[in-house]
Design a protein that fits this description.
The protein folds into two domains: 78 residues; 42 residues, no CATH class. It is 56% helix and 5% strand. The chain has three helices and two strands, in the order H-H-E-E-H. A two-stranded antiparallel ribbon has the order 1-2. Helix 1 packs antiparallel against helix 2. The two termini are 28 Å apart.
């Protein structure tokens, strides 16, 4: 059975982190929009010309089909810009998140009391030297020792 980590602690951005995020998001979005601006403008103009020609020819079917294609293109490009913006933002905005995989949380599936590794107490599992709360407090003081180093890339 595959275990999924338990996210136990969430924290809001500080005012400074939020400001940094906003700036980096705006930069990433502007960069991505600029990257695709010519393509979007050219394709939009092409669709508009075809739609206008269909209007003049009173070809309602062609007009609706091209309008639908234009809408699909715009939606696709909007999604592409959003996804690329998110990817750039992930690279440029480093924000540490504390994750803890808890096995013993003080209660069993049937509701009975159990060992607890979440907070300091007298019923901790063997081998637990620091609870998740204590680790989180250390993480808040200095997250660097908790970073996972990726190798093999």
């Amino acid at each position: 059975m595959r275990r999924v980590p338990s996210l136990l602690f969430l924290q809001k951005f500080t005012v400074e982190e939020q400001a940094e995020f906003n700036v980096k998001y705006a930069e990433a979005k502007a960069e991505t929009e600029a990257k695709y601006a010519d393509t979007i403008n050219e394709e939009t103009r092409r669709f508009e010309i075809v739609i206008e020609a269909a209007k003049k020819a009173r070809d309602i079917r062609q007009q609706k089909e091209q309008q639908r294609e234009l809408t699909n293109f715009q939606r696709h490009m909007s999604d592409l810009v959003a996804n690329e913006t998110q990817s750039i933002l992930k690279e440029r905005f480093s924000y540490p998140i504390f994750l803890y995989d808890a096995e013993k949380v003080g209660i069993t599936a049937t509701g009975d009391s159990d060992q607890n590794e979440l907070v300091p107490n007298n019923n901790q599992p063997p081998g637990i030297t620091r609870t998740s709360l204590e680790l989180y407090q250390e993480f808040r003081r200095d997250p660097k020792p908790f970073f996972i180093v990726e190798t093999g890339k």
